[in-house]
Design goal:
Layout (H helix, E strand, L loop, with lengths): L3 E3 L8 E3 L4 H7 L3 H17 L2 H4 L13 H7 L6 H11 L2 H13 L1 H22 L6 H31 L3 H15 L17 H19 L2 H4 L13 H7 L6 H11 L2 H32 L10 H32 L2 H14 L11 H16 L28 H6 L8 H9 L1 H4 L13 H11 L4
Antiparallel strand pairs: 1-2
Helix pairs in contact: 2-13, 2-14, 2-15, 5-9, 5-10, 6-8, 7-8, 8-15, 14-15, 17-21, 19-21
């Protein structure tokens, strides 16, 4: 790992930091293999999971404008956010720590607004999984709204960071820069005896960890280092984070990617490669627009006004490009889904189960919304136009084994039609609980839904499908 001289934001004293050179980091930011790995692993999690799996949003990914990604990459992924935060807070004076603690409350409303905007984007994508209509312009506008909300959050954080940074003594500046160098070099310092995190309410502790770690990376880095971002940035729409958490962090993206790609045909892998190409082409535009936003936020470090209207406009521009990158990935994944064979679908579903048990669907939604979440997994096989599973539109009240556009009903299900003419909600409930118990010999590759409340929610949603 190359050592370079880096003049930090907060001090004019050159310090030998162990960050990778800016050139090396820039080259890593467009790593095609890493992007391919990200898209392939998301293909599994998005197509086989439920929307509830995809709703998880880490606070650390919100308003990610402050250079922590470059610091983590330069450490060889060895540093922990909590360790960096504790070392940083130990250098600050009580009144400086209080400024960051006060920021927790100041940012709360804007953080909630940014999270809500992100979840609205997730919800729109989830509609694509269950074949609801969504146009790219509509989705891009949602991206602009999210980008503006995230930038507004970033502005609040930057203003307080700037105030604390300008109050640092020369000794504190040197100490913080040395902490950065140690963590970037993969040899973090001994943990400080003083731990201000211990006095913070448990519910706020993780948010303060995120703020403190970003304060260090932003104020000790250069603009070039802080601009660094991985090319696969649109990462929290497709459920991989939830899969990793559910596995106890045991699952690795590279492993998932290899397994998924081994299931796909060359043509299907080519579809994902097209999305990779589109994202790489958009990435330079993303960095340019994001860089303009970063320069405006950096005005806080020297005490200049960070213009709110400009921040919103620049944030919307960033969100637009990110939405276009996300859209390209989603469309590729759906094209792959439509081309999967029955055997491939079963392999992918089994693959997800190999990593971890299915994440529970949130019980807080109303019945129809919850059923829509559950139906997303059904859509893996029952998408319209499927040649190996019938469509589920108008299934409630429909004659059994009667969908005109499907010809693959098993002899067992056709024989069952002689006993029960139509799919009533009561009959569907029994079938969903254990398909092979009700219809021995059915070729439906699904073990059943034992939870009665889940079945009721799914049936409530199925009744809305005309």
């Amino acid at each position: 790992m190359a050592a370079v001289v880096s003049v930090s934001h907060i001090g004019a004293v050159p310090v030998r930091a162990q960050d990778q050179s800016i050139r090396d980091i820039s080259e890593m930011s467009v790593d095609r293999a890493q992007l391919r790995s990200a898209v392939a692993s998301r293909t599994l999690t998005w197509l086989t999971g439920t929307p509830a799996d995809n709703e998880y949003l880490s606070v650390g990914r919100m308003a990610n404008f402050f250079g922590f990604v470059a610091l983590r990459v330069s450490s060889g992924q060895s540093l922990t956010r909590a360790h960096v935060a504790r070392d940083t807070l130990a250098v600050l004076q009580p009144e400086q720590v209080a400024g960051l603690v006060d920021l927790l409350e100041v940012q709360r409303k804007m953080l909630a607004a940014a999270q809500a905007a992100r979840l609205e984007m997730n919800g729109a994508l989830e509609g694509l999984v269950v074949e609801e209509r969504l146009s790219e312009p509509v989705f891009v506008e949602l991206g602009r709204q999210f980008g503006a909300a995230e930038a507004a959050l970033g502005r609040v954080i930057a203003v307080e960071f700037g105030a604390v940074a300008r109050s640092l003594s020369a000794e504190q500046r040197v100490d913080l820069t040395r902490i950065r160098a140690a963590h970037a070099g993969g040899t973090p310092p001994e943990r400080a005896d003083r731990n201000p995190l211990a006095s913070v309410a448990e519910g706020d502790r993780q948010a303060l960890v995120n703020l403190s770690a970003r304060f260090l990376s932003w104020t000790t880095g250069t603009p070039e280092l802080n601009d660094f971002e991985v090319v696969g940035k649109p990462s929290q729409h497709f459920g991989f984070v939830s899969l990793r958490l559910a596995s106890g962090h045991a699952v690795r993206r590279g492993e998932v990617s290899r397994d998924v790609l081994s299931v796909l045909t060359p043509r299907q892998r080519g579809i994902l490669e097209e999305a990779v190409d589109q994202n790489i082409a958009l990435f330079e535009e993303f960095l340019t627009r994001r860089g303009a936003l970063m320069r405006e936020l950096e005005r806080a470090l020297v005490g200049d006004d960070v213009r709110a209207d400009l921040v919103l406009r620049l944030g919307a521009d960033v969100g637009e490009v990110e939405a276009r990158m996300t859209w390209a990935q989603a469309q590729a994944m759906l094209r792959v889904r439509s081309s999967l064979s029955a055997a491939q679908r079963e392999e992918l579903l089994a693959l997800r189960g190999r990593y971890t048990a299915e994440s529970p669907v949130s019980g807080g939604a109303d019945a129809v919304s919850r059923g829509r979440q559950l139906f997303a997994a059904c859509a893996m096989c029952h998408a319209s136009g499927s040649s190996f599973a019938p469509p589920l539109t108008a299934i409630v009240g429909r004659e059994i084994a009667s969908a005109q556009q499907y010809e693959g009903y098993s002899p067992a299900l056709e024989a069952f039609r002689d006993t029960e003419l139509r799919w009533s909600t009561a009959l569907l409930d029994v079938f969903l609980e254990a398909p092979r118990d009700l219809v021995p010999g059915t070729t439906m590759g699904y073990d059943g839904m034992p939870d009665a409340s889940d079945r009721a929610a799914l049936l409530a949603y199925l009744e809305t499908l005309e």
